[in-house]
Design brief:
binds pyridoxal-5'-phosphate, 41% helix, 15% strand, seven-stranded mixed beta sheet, Aspartate Aminotransferase, domain 2, 16 helices, alpha/beta, Aspartate Aminotransferase, domain 1, 395 residues
Length: 395
């Protein structure tokens, strides 16, 4: 594991070459599907691994210099040996998991993880003969009890969506290591490397939906995984087979967005804390979920592990489903949309968006309050975001 240096400086510079073609300051987008060889001897040298340029590529599905530069930056930010970019966060998670399990293996998953990750593990992996056990949010005793000699992966997020539950990653990693051969995969999308460094807690593989904070502008889909070289090599190999590579245009946008990662996340975290603090005493709000509010059930874990609480605040509006929809409809600055982490403030009534197909009884089974609203704050003026939510809540 590499020790991370300064996040803001790494976010701007890590992975960049000192000299670029034509002396440009910024990265060029290498738009090529394939790469050429001068003659048969040149090709033979490359195939034997004897080329003077270790970064030389053969074909676009195996690598691209624009993408590679951003991968090195993600690795530096996470304090990992290496990293890979993918076409989406789901491509990153599914390729990572598929690279590390086989039929007969077992996976432990926290039940509040991103629902498509849960769907992938409980349906796709199940069809391939990989068993899964779901354990309650942040419950490390349940996680320990679920570990078997066949467990190869423990997958969690921290903070989770939409209740922003934080998991004690150091304790989780210690328990998993002590129990056997499983590897910990953390989806750190909500935390970002600005607010949390899972590698420092012993986590081996760190996944991101780079669509969210890393790219940060709601204009591109991408994913990333960072970790030790030997595991990243395995995952790279499978990425070349499954094909979920990040397009060089998209990689450029991720890399360009990452230059302002620290600035954005610091602003988003302080605005979200201001919103959460204001809502905590609002008469129309029954409950607020934000990792750094003392009332949050995993506040102690968040305080110990996180620099900032991130840009997402969830809150339950008094009056249930209709009242929550009315709040979302009255918001003016915040736009109704799924996703999070970008520069624009977004709002969603959780039951109408991510859980549309469930009635109130079914929502209760998955622990979603019908009055729950999720706000992802952008980088607008803090007072404007607070005013928008307070105005939307009404008198
Ligand atoms: N992980 C988390 C925590 C997410 O919120 C999402 C998407 O919402 C994903 C993974 C999937 O990422 P993508 O949409 O980039 O495939």
């Amino acid at each position: 594991m590499r020790r991370p240096t300064s996040t803001s400086t790494d976010a701007v510079h890590a992975g960049e070459p000192r000299a670029r073609p034509h002396h440009t300051l910024t990265a060029q987008v290498a738009l090529t599907a394939t790469y050429t060889f001068d003659d048969s001897a040149d090709l033979a040298r490359y195939m034997r691994g004897e080329d003077a340029d270790p970064g030389r590529e053969e074909y676009g599905r195996y690598g691209n210099p624009t993408t590679r530069e951003v991968e090195r930056r993600v690795a530096a930010l996470e304090g990992a040996d290496d990293a890979l970019l993918f076409s989406s966060g789901m491509a990153a998670m599914t390729t990572t998991a598929l690279a590390l399990v086989k039929a007969g293996d077992h996976v432990v998953l926290f039940s509040d993880c991103y629902r498509r990750t849960r769907q992938f593990v409980t349906t796709t992996l199940a069809r391939l003969g990989v068993r899964a056990t779901l354990v309650p949010p942040a419950d490390l005793d349940a996680m320990s009890a679920a570990l078997t000699p066949e467990t190869r992966l423990v997958i969690t997020e921290s903070p989770t969506n939409p209740y922003l539950t934080c998991v004690d990653l150091a304790e989780l990693s210690r328990r998993v290591r002590a129990a056997g051969r499983a590897r910990v995969v953390v989806d750190s999308t909500f935390a970002t490397p600005v607010n949390q460094r899972p590698a420092l807690s012993g986590v081996e593989l760190i996944v991101h939906s780079a669509t969210k904070y890393l790219a940060g502008h709601n204009d591109v889909l991408a994913g990333a995984v960072a970790g030790p070289s030997h595991l990243i090599s395995l995952i790279r190999e499978l990425r070349g087979v499954l094909g979920g590579v990040c397009d060089p245009h998209a990689a450029f946008l991720v890399g360009r967005g990452m230059k302002t990662l620290s600035l954005r996340v610091e602003r988003q975290s302080s605005t979200a804390l201001a919103v959460a603090t204001r809502l905590a005493s609002h008469p129309r709000v029954a409950r607020v979920f934000y990792p750094l509010l003392p009332s949050h059930p995993t506040h102690d874990v968040a305080r110990a592990a996180m620099r900032g609480g991130g840009g997402v605040v969830s809150f339950v509006v008094r009056g249930g489903r209709e009242a929550a929809c009315a709040v979302v409809d009255r918001a003016r600055l915040a736009r109704i949309a799924p996703s999070l982490g970008g520069v624009e403030t977004l709002i969603e009534h959780v039951a109408s968006m991510s859980y549309f197909e469930l009635d109130d009884a079914a929502l209760a089974l998955v622990g979603i309050d019908p009055g729950l609203v999720r706000l992802s704050v952008g980088v607008e003026e803090t007072e404007d975001v607070v005013d928008d939510v307070v105005t939307a809540l009404g008198a």
